[in-house]
Amino acid sequence: MKYACRRVAMLAVTMVIVSLLAFVAFDLISGDPATAMLGTEATPEKVAALQKELGLDRPLLVRYGAWLLGFFTGDLGVSYSYHQSVWDLIAPKVAVTLCLSLLSFLLIAAVSIPLGLRSAVRSGGVLDGARTVLNQLCMAVPPLFTGILLSWLFSTTLRWFIHGQFPALSADFWGAMKYLLFAAVAIAIPRIAMTVRMLRSTVRQELQKDYVRTAISRGNDRSAVLRRHVLKNALVPVVTFLAQTMAEIVAGSIVVEQVFAIPGLGRMLVASISSRDYPTVQAIVVILAFWVVLAGAVADLVNQRIDPRLRLGGRS
Amino acid sequence: MKKTQKNGYLRVGLLLTGLMAALILLGMVWTPYDPQAMSVGPKFAPPSLRFLMGTDNFGRDIFSRVLQGAGATFVIALSTVAIGAVCGTVVGALTGYFGGAVDETLMRLNDALTAFPSILLALVVISLLGPGNKYNVILALGLVFIPSFARVTRTAFASLREVNYVKSARLMGASTARILLVHMLPNTLHVLLPALTIGFNNAVLAEASMSFLDIGVTPPDASLGYMLSEAQSLFTAAPWYAVGTGGAIVLLVFSVGLLGEGLQRRDKGVV
Amino acid sequence: MKKNLLGLLLSVALVCAVLSGCGDGSAAQTSEDRVAANAIVVGIAQDLDDSLDPHKTVKAGTREVMFNVFEGLMKPTPNGDLTPAVAESYTVSEDHRTYTFSLREGVKFHNGEPVTAEDVVSSIQRCAAATETGIVQVEAFSVMEDIRATDERTVSITISEPSNEFLSYLTTAILPAGYDQQDTAPVGTGPFRFVSRTAQDSIVLERFDDYWGMPAQLKQVTFKIIENADSLMMSLQSGAIDLCGHLTSTQTAQLGDDFDVAEGTMNLVQALYLNNAEAPFDDVRVRQALSYAVDRQAIIDLAFDGYGSPIGSSMYPAFGKYFDESLTDYYACDAERSKRLLAEAGYPDGFEMTITVPSNYKPHMDTAEVLVQQLAAVGVRATIAPIEWESWVSDVYTNRQFQSTVVGVDASNMTARALLERFTSTYGKNFINYNNADYDRLFREVLATYDDEKQTALYKEMEKNLTENAANVYLQDLADLVAVRKGLTGVTFYPIYVLDLSGIRYTA
Question: Do C391 and A30 touch (CB under 8 A)?
Answer without folding.
Answer: yes
